[in-house]
Design brief:
binds acetoacetyl-coenzyme A, Rossmann fold, 240 residues, seven-stranded parallel β-sheet, single chain
């Protein structure tokens, strides 16, 4: 039987590439999204992957959404916590809502989704969870106290949950992408981005597919010995 995977934020950007990579591995994929229904429907049509709308920052919505996926596709074996937002600004200019939304969605989303999926994986003795962190959670970034804190939290969350899953056949790992050619990075002011790219040893932004390859590696059937680790895919920008 095909493995069932949920990819949060799975209809565009890095998430879209991950959804496609897991489908290529033979998995049945549910791509979660929170925003534009029209774009998600276009993705479903293009990719042949069902999309499901809910906000990962909403605990109850995650319970209901994951139950729906399980009912329609089967018990969830693989969870990729990819959904994330930015609300960049220096601390002086950052509102409480900018702080809270980023923590609630980027970090809280991992908790909410794991609560809905991890117990079933443990019960069935097999599971793969991959959390998408960030270079900016490892190294910090000017104008991102909210995002860096949430992503840094994801790395701690990963190592803690990995210990709970280890004896039960459930691996929990993180990927820390560097700057990837997506809408999120395109929103960084051009002059700032130029300076960032100049500091990437490979001399370019990464591609979403290059992150998806890492996720596929961590989700493989043979991946049982890799847990609690962070794969840094950043073109050498932060060697950690
Ligand atoms: N280090 C030190 N100083 C910096 C700096 C840095 N990295 N970046 C900016 N500054 C300084 C500027 O030189 C400037 O100083 P002066 O006033 O003395 O000239 C001052 O800070 C103000 O800079 P800005 O004009 O940029 O300030 P702003 O308030 O208009 O914007 C900002 C601030 C919103 C943080 C903007 O700089 C920005 O968007 N930066 C990009 C942040 C970033 O990298 N986000 C990543 C998004 S992608 C992502 O997060 C994905 C992932 O996982 C990698």
């Amino acid at each position: 039987m095909a493995r069932i995977a949920i990819v949060t934020g799975g209809t565009r950007g890095i998430g879209e590439a991950i959804s496609l990579a897991l489908k290529d591995m033979g998995m049945t994929v549910a791509a979660n999204y929170a925003g534009n229904e029209e774009k998600a429907n276009a993705f479903t049509e293009r990719a042949g992957i069902k999309s499901y709308k809910w906000d990962v920052g909403d605990y109850d919505a995650c319970q209901t959404g994951c139950a729906k996926v399980a009912e329609e596709l089967g018990p969830v074996d693989v969870l990729v916590n990819n959904a994330g937002i930015t609300r960049d600004g220096t601390l002086a200019r950052m509102s409480f809502d900018d702080w809270n939304d980023v923590i609630r969605i980027n970090l809280g989303g991992c908790f909410n989704m794991a609560k809905a999926c991890f117990p079933g994986m443990v019960e069935r003795g097999w599971g793969r969870i991959v959390n998408i962190g960030s270079i900016n959670g490892q190294a910090g970034q000017y104008g991102q106290v909210n995002y860096a804190a949430a992503k840094s939290g994801i790395h701690g969350f990963t190592k803690a949950l990995a210990q709970e899953g280890a004896k039960k056949g459930v691996t929990v790992n993180a990927i820390a992408p560097g700057y990837i050619d997506t809408d999120m990075v395109a929103a960084v002011p051009e002059a700032v981005l130029e300076k960032i790219v100049a500091k990437i040893p490979v001399g370019r932004l990464g591609q979403a597919d290059e992150i998806a390859r890492g996720v596929a590696f961590l989700c493989a059937e043979e991946g049982g010995f890799v847990t609690g680790s962070t794969l840094s895919l950043n073109g050498g920008q932060h060697m950690y």
